[in-house]
């Protein structure tokens, strides 16, 4: 089984995804496809259109004069464009009204295209037409190694889908980043947590999400340590750079924030995985608040290790700084290699 579900969901609403068009949403709204929470269901909850579902549901199709039923579809703009490694089509709670088959296509379009412009784009099939079952999360690996900005879910002929998850690697457009101070730890800029000591309550990547956490669940939180050690997470930066300002945000963590934090950096290109340079010494932090620390004179790094002493949670981690010339080249080369301009 592929581990692609551990990668970020590029389409989720939390990361800026949007369902920009759909052929039909007679029963349930298309926007439900990318809700961040698990699908919910309350039996015998009837509205003006029938039983209510937490998903997207279309009307029953009838054959046309030629006997063809046609099919329904929904177009999703990825909040974070990137290389799609796998797709999950979840029919949770749809048991008598799920589509028997589905497929997924993707395209890469510059700028901010309208639905009509997307309809005219060049689409690539990334999940061939496959059979579905009701009440099931279907995982489909994707082997097309190219940067995409939109996906189109096709269902045959109609029915309900609770969630569409589009997991992959973020590939940012380097043009808004080069020459500016940027958040080198932002998920939307291509950073990832590649190692951590503990993710009992939530995944550490969440502290790299855009915007502010709305509650305690939207950050990273570890279990309580009993061994005298401390927790940590290693962030692979968006590209090589120098960190000049660290923002340590413990918002919503009122009784489970760490007492102190540390930051260390290393350049993975140097070859020594244990060669960490202190960027921020052990520093006290307070619960439920944002802390900013200047990090002047630090070295060029590719990875930063955040230490939580002894344990706890982190709402957001921001590492503002400058891409080095090597970092700018790395972003530009990756973008060019994975992007095919649509005609």
From TrEMBL:
The gene coding this protein: alc
Leader sequence residues: none
Record keywords: Hydrolase, Purine metabolism
Pathway it works in: Nitrogen metabolism; (S)-allantoin degradation; (S)-ureidoglycolate from allantoate (aminidohydrolase route): step 1/1
PANTHER family in UniProt: ALLANTOICASE, INACTIVE ALLANTOICASE-RELATED
UniProt KW Hydrolase keyword: yes
Reactions that this protein is recorded to catalyse: allantoate + H2O = (S)-ureidoglycolate + urea
Family statement drawn from the similarity comment of this UniProt entry: Belongs to the allantoicase family.
Designated name of the protein: Probable allantoicase
Keyword Chloroplast in annotation: no
Domain Allantoicase: 16-170, 190-322
Organism: Actinomadura rayongensis
EC number, UniProt record: 3.5.3.4
HAMAP family to which the protein is assigned, alphabetical: Allantoicase
């Amino acid at each position: 089984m592929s581990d692609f579900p551990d990668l970020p969901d590029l389409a989720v609403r939390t990361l800026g995804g949007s369902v920009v068009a759909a052929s039909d949403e007679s029963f349930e709204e298309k926007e439900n496809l990318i809700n961040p929470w698990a699908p919910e269901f309350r039996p015998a909850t009837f509205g003006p259109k029938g039983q209510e579902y937490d998903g997207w549901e279309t009307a029953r199709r009838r054959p046309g004069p030629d006997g063809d039923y046609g099919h329904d579809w929904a177009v999703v703009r990825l909040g974070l464009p990137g290389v799609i490694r796998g797709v999950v089509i979840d029919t949770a709670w749809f048991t008598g009204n799920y589509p028997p088959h589905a497929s997924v296509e993707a395209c890469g379009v510059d700028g901010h295209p309208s639905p009509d412009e997307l309809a005219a784009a060049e689409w690539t099939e990334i999940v061939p037409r496959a059979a579905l079952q009701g009440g099931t999360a279907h995982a489909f690996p994707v082997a097309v190694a190219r940067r995409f900005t939109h996906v189109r879910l096709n269902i045959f002929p109609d029915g309900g889908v609770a969630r569409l998850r589009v997991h992959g690697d973020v590939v940012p457009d380097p043009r808004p980043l080069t020459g500016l101070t940027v958040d080198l730890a932002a998920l939307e800029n291509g950073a990832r947590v590649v190692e951590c000591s503990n993710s009992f309550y939530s995944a550490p990547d969440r502290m790299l999400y855009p915007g502010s956490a709305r509650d305690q669940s939207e950050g990273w939180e570890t279990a309580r340590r009993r061994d005298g050690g401390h927790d940590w997470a290693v962030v692979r930066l968006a590209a090589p750079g120098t960190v000049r300002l660290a923002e340590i945000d413990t918002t919503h963590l009122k009784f489970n924030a760490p007492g102190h934090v540390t930051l260390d950096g290393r350049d993975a290109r140097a070859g020594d995985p244990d060669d960490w340079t202190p960027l921020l010494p052990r520093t006290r932090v307070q619960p439920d608040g944002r802390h900013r620390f200047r990090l002047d004179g630090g070295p060029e790094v590719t990875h930063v290790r955040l230490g939580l002493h002894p344990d706890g949670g982190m709402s957001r981690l921001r590492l503002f700084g400058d891409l080095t010339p090597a970092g700018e080249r790395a972003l530009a080369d990756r973008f060019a290699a994975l992007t095919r301009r649509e005609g």
